[in-house]
């Protein structure tokens, strides 16, 4: 009996050891799989126990973007996901959902060459004139419509340098507070053929050339279908 026992024991120990190693190994694999699953669940926002944390913490957590703890990480992913595509290039940190819409609504970018910044009256008249010119084979191009006061001042400063005095400069470029361009009530057009066409036909649409020295400059100076007023030699900066 005793002679039979020793050879069995090592074998028994080996099998036990192997089974223990096997159990530990399987346990490790299962454990890591569970951990991995939990992490994936976190990333996908599927962890059921973290849902209530999202709703309670989400309001104050929006202002603090860099999230390190698991709870805030869980709040970041669901709240940011819908707003990220439009906001990532421009606003990386603060209030990603509101800033881009504010920019697009409160700051309409009006190009100087577009008629969209003109007064409704001049814009409507000019559109009709442009269509009629096109029917005659003439394309009216807008070189300058509404200008910002800043741009107008810059043009005036350049004109003062060019003509040598304020008085001479204002024959060509009025100060911002007198400029019809800044009010959206004047338009400069081109090329020469378009100037000639509009000078001849503009009265039909109530659009008139105003100055002798500026064949490109037109304003809504008369009722459509009535004669344009006499031209002025050049612009004058009125003192008021
Ligand atoms: Zn002009």
TrEMBL record:
GO molecular-function term, one example from the UniProt record:
peptidase activity
Q: Which residues form the D-alanyl-D-alanine carboxypeptidase-like core domain?
A: 118-218
In terms of CDD domains, this protein maps to:
Peptidase_M15_like
Q: Which Pfam families did the record assign?
A: VanY
Provide the protein name: Peptidase M15
InterPro entries per UniProt: DD-CPase-like, VanY-like_core_dom, Zn_M74/Hedgehog-like
Alphabetically ordered keywords of this record: Membrane, Transmembrane, Transmembrane helix
* Bias-annotated ranges (Low complexity): 59-82, 90-108
Has keyword Transcription regulation?
A: no
| Lineage, top ranks | Bacteria, Bacillati, Actinomycetota, Actinomycetes, Propionibacteriales
Q: Where is this region: Disordered?
A: 59-114
Q: Which GO terms describe its biological process?
A: proteolysis
Transmembrane portions of the chain = 17-36
Look up keyword Amino-acid biosynthesis and say if it applies: no
């Amino acid at each position: 009996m005793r002679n039979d026992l020793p050879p069995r024991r090592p074998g028994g120990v080996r099998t036990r050891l192997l089974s223990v190693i096997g159990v530990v190994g399987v346990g490790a694999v299962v454990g890591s799989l569970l951990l991995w699953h939990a992490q994936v669940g976190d990333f996908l926002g599927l962890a059921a126990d973290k849902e209530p944390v999202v709703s309670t913490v989400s309001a104050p957590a929006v202002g603090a973007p860099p999230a390190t703890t698991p709870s805030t990480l869980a709040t970041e992913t669901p709240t940011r996901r819908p707003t990220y595509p439009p906001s990532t290039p421009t606003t990386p940190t603060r209030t990603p959902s509101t800033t881009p819409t504010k920019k697009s609504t409160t700051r309409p970018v009006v190009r100087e060459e577009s008629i969209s910044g003109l007064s409704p009256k001049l814009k409507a008249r000019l559109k009709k004139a442009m269509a009629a010119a096109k029917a005659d084979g003439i394309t009216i191009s807008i070189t300058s419509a509404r200008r910002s006061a800043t741009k107008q001042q810059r043009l005036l400063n350049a004109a003062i340098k060019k003509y040598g005095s304020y008085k001479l400069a204002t024959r060509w470029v009025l100060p911002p507070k007198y400029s019809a361009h800044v009010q959206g009530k004047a338009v400069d057009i081109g090329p020469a053929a378009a100037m000639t066409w509009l000078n001849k036909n503009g009265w039909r649409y109530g659009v008139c050339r105003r100055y002798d020295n500026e064949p490109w400059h037109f304003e809504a100076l008369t009722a459509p279908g009535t004669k344009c007023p006499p031209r002025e030699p050049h612009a004058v900066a009125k003192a008021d």
